[in-house]
Amino acid sequence: xxxxxxxxxxxxxxxxxxxxxxxxxxxxxxxxxxxxxxxxxxxxxxxxxxxxxxxxxxxxxxxxxxxxxxxxxxxxxxxxxxxxxxxxxxxxxxxxxxxxxxxxxxxxxxxxxxxx
Length: 116
Hints:
Elements: H1 6-9, H2 19-27, H3 31-55, E1 59-62, H4 71-80, H5 87-90, E2 94-97, H6 104-115
Parallel strand pairs: 1-2
Helix pairs in contact: 2-3, 3-4
């Protein structure tokens, strides 16, 4: 949520909320939480577009706790990718949640460490 900016990350005053708290509120219809996730998703989409353009990557797997926001975060990201990349790139980019849940990042680190 930090990508959405400090003004958006704490729209509920001084009550600090985790990303999971915001995702839960958004899922129950909280318009402010939905706006925060939409902003964060747009920022994610801009980052994905940049990486796709620079590194020629077309599959982005989003994992860890941020993936718990699901489509409330990923759909705005997908909609934003074409705004920041060539159509030839954005047409092949896929942004998907990990199938490994919260363990995805640590399993990836373990796999990389094993590769030596």
